[in-house]
Amino acid sequence: AITSITYATTGATGATVTGLPAGVTGSWAANVVTISGTPTASGTFPYTVTLTGGCGTITATGTITVTPNNTITLTSGSGSDAQTLCISTAITSITYATTGATGATVTGLPAGVTGSWAANAVTISGTPTASGTFNYTVTLTGGCGTVTATGTITVNPLPNVFAGTDQTIPNGTSTTLDATVSGGSGTYTYSWTPAASLVNPTVVDPTTVSLSATTTFTLLVTDAVTGCQSSDQVTVFITGGALAANAFATPNTVCSGSSVQLQANAGGGSGSYTYSWSSSPAGFTSTIANPTVSPTITTIYTVTVNDGFNNVTSSVTVTVTPNNTITLTSGSTTQTVCISTAITSITYATTGATGATVTGLPAGVTGSWAANVVTISGTPTASGTFTYTITLTGGCP
Asked: What CA–CA distance (Å, rounded) separates 105 from 122?
């Protein structure tokens, strides 16, 4: 509505008003001209008030400028303002053409979707990150009139899919893929790659079906009502051939007090092993694949190898050889004699050795080993002080 315009008159018996926009009228009563109303057309309207009766031709003029109301029109196609889609899927952009406005606000959109105004166009776009029914409103700002447009974006949730926990199974066995699905409408269709039609199919290893040694299965779940899809993966690891283990020692035969490295050579099975060593006589344990031991007597060492499914055992014997000994049994180790005079024979008892050498004797005196006895005897043919050494050979050490 315009602000009413009034004129006071004298002498006249009436008045006419011309040039007003449609919806606006002019009237005269009690010496007052009143122009009022609500224009229904836009444009610039120069009006004239002409008094009638009385003396003289008297007029008054003015101008009423009517600005058009704002407009908003959907331009992105019929139905684009009423979309249904899955969460995390971009909406089809919604656009409106506007006239008169200097801006626009958009409210009620789902998270992830925004609305903007530029160059007389409103654009709504984005990817919703929340599900639900969202009734949005576009409100023009500036210009004339309170003009709005509304629409609805319906965002359906995705089904929650868990394909199951990764598994490791022995060669020649089967397993069930333990998947779970929830959310959405509650009615689903399932698609496994490699193919299966059940949510929890039984799968078997390469001995009975053509799968690679390690197979990753992908479960695609489709909500039967909304068509929204989610997927997840699970891997089934197939173990190798039969588990085997071999125990050995480096070296197998040692002198008392020496160190020995035990070694377990495992193969096949899952390829991932744990080790458990024990000994007979008892007293040694270890979980290391290659432990070091210092046996004091001959001992059998046994390793148990586990690949997560089976145990295999293997044993190795470490033979401990006693250290050699030498003991004076007769004669004196410190003798003084005259040249060309026989010494008193010197004898030593030995254990462990397979022989002996004697060095440092005077000429004419010899040392020999036989039947675990070293004998030094003879008649020196040279004078001097002779420090002799007996060295056992063979045995330990």
From this structure: 9
